[in-house]
Write a structure and sequence with these properties.
Alpha-Beta Plaits, single chain, six-stranded mixed beta sheet, about 30% helix, four-stranded antiparallel beta sheet, Rossmann fold
Length: about 325
């Protein structure tokens, strides 16, 4: 097995107030993967990214990027990292192409106009290269942030809420860019509140809460292991309540009594679906349509955080 591109070992961060933002985080990130880091506000996502990037000093623990310690060998480690922060902080009167070139120079990279053009074209910014940053829309400014982060050819790219405030069409375009970056060999760690996107694009999902990693797992394996399936049964006529003979199935009524919903574990030896349909027929409930759906990553995430908080899982 190859060594991870990024290795985090028992990382902690305690602020002067005593607040512990990170509590012994350990995580290995594979070269070339997309990892989605999920967690509620204040969970420690941004602190973790900031610590890895050298913006925040850790209280204890160690981070290495391609073998370079982020504290002892900061410059070498930081050259391998690109960061797209949540906040849009750009020089408003500077031209797009100048802004991106300047970022490349900050990391000691020689001027390479062909590479800068490639990035700007990839991000649909080439036509805006001579525009002042202040003339751009919010979504285009976010693309400039990505171009700046990629200008020095990093091997690891952090995207901290990259699609916040971006419209649906532009968000879809940006995820296509992320997929292209992965194809180019860039390792991507992203935080997002759009969980359906993490489900669609991430190779693995990490859940962080209260500064601790609750789970790291392959996205599809997580969906399979923790996800439940629902069978939605449309009735030809509405009912006011579930008949007593069906009480053992844990059914719920929706759509004004026109729909019965049955939740089951698809990995179980017996799902009970056949028996349920027979019992419904015996109870004189007539079916007009049946649909099944998998639990979403969002539902799994909410359940994990609720468990961590000691609440009953929904």
């Amino acid at each position: 097995m190859t060594s991870p591109i990024l290795s985090i070992d028992r990382l902690t961060k305690t602020y002067g107030s005593g607040f512990k933002a990170l509590n012994g985080v350990s995580l290995d990130i594979r070269d070339g993967e997309i990892l989605a880091l999920l967690g509620p506000n204040g969970a420690g996502k941004t602190t973790l990214i900031s610590t890895i990037c050298g913006i925040v000093q850790p209280t204890s623990g160690r981070v290495t990027v391609a073998g370079h310690d982020t504290v002892r060998d900061y410059k070498a480690a930081r050259r391998l990292i690109g960061l797209v922060p949540q906040e849009i902080a750009l020089e408003p009167f500077e031209k797009v192409i100048t802004t991106v070139r300047f970022s490349r120079g900050l990391f000691g990279k020689p001027r390479d106009d062909a590479f800068i053009e490639k990035i700007l074209r990839q991000l649909s910014l080439w036509d805006k290269r001579d525009a002042r940053v202040r003339e751009l829309s919010g979504g285009m400014k976010r693309r400039v942030l990505i171009a700046k982060a990629l200008s020095h050819e990093p091997r690891v790219l952090f995207l901290d809420e990259p699609t916040a405030g971006v419209d649906v069409e532009l968000r879809r375009d940006m995820w296509q860019v992320v997929e292209q970056l992965k194809a180019d060999g860039v390792t991507i760690i992203l935080t997002t509140h759009y969980l359906e996107e993490a489900e669609a694009i991430a190779d693995r999902v990490g859940v962080i809460n209260k500064g601790e990693i609750l789970l790291i797992e392959e996205t599809q394996a997580l969906m399979k292991r923790m996800g439940q399936k629902e069978m939605r049964i449309e009735l030809t006529e509405p009912v006011s309540e579930v008949p007593g003979v069906l009480s053992g199935y844990g059914l719920r009524l929706e759509a004004g009594g026109c729909r019965v919903v049955y939740t089951y574990d698809r990995q179980a030896e017996r799902t009970g679906i056949g028996r349920l349909l027979r019992d419904m027929q015996d109870a004189d409930l007539h079916v007009s349509d049946v649909e099944t759906r998998q639990s979403s990553l969002e539902e799994i995430f909410v359940g994990l955080v609720a468990e961590d908080a000691g609440e009953a899982r929904p």
